Amino acid sequence: MNVQTGTVAAFVHRASGVLLTLFLPVHFYAIGTTLESAAAFDALLVWTQYPLVKFGEWGIVVLLAAHLGGGLRVLALEFLPWRGWQKSLAAAAAALALAVGLAFALAL
């Protein structure tokens, strides 16, 4: 099966957008409800030390970076006249997303 690089890049961009749409409202709701009291916020900070929560936070950073890279790719395809660099641009967007995710993971 021959999968085009642009197809994979478009799929990653759309999938990251859908996952962000599902995750971010829940994430912001959880943070917003804990800001009502100092004790609830302290409990949230303790909860964020669990490995699964750290992995989820790493995942959201990777999703954001992938979505940003895919969005920049789409803008470049729309406004730049060249077509030969599409594979390189998709690869650069993927590398950027992984680099941001790795940098965030190392900072945990």
Fold topology:
Elements: H1 5-34, H2 38-47, H3 51-79, H4 86-107
What brief labels describe this structure?
3 helical TM bundles of succinate and fumarate reductases; 4 helices; 84% helix
Summarize the structure.
The protein is an all-alpha fold and 108 residues long. Helix content is 84%, strand content 0%. The longest helix is centred in the N-terminal third of the chain and has 30 residues, at 5-34.
Describe this structure in words.
There is one protein chain. With 108 residues, the chain is an all-alpha fold. It has a single domain (5-107), classed as Fumarate reductase/succinate dehydrogenase, transmembrane subunit (3 helical TM bundles of succinate and fumarate reductases, Up-down Bundle). Helices cover 84% and strands 0% of the residues. The chain has 4 helices and no strands. Helix 1 (5-34) packs across helix 3 and helix 3 packs antiparallel against helix 4 (86-107). It is elongated, with a radius of gyration of 17 Å. The model has no long low-confidence stretch (mean pLDDT 82).
Write down the domain tally: 1
Query: What are the secondary-structure elements, in order, as H or E?
Result: HHHH
End-to-end separation: 39 Å
Structural class: mainly alpha
CATH class designation? Mainly Alpha
Q: The biggest beta sheet, please? A: none
The CATH topology assignment is 3 helical TM bundles of succinate and fumarate reductases
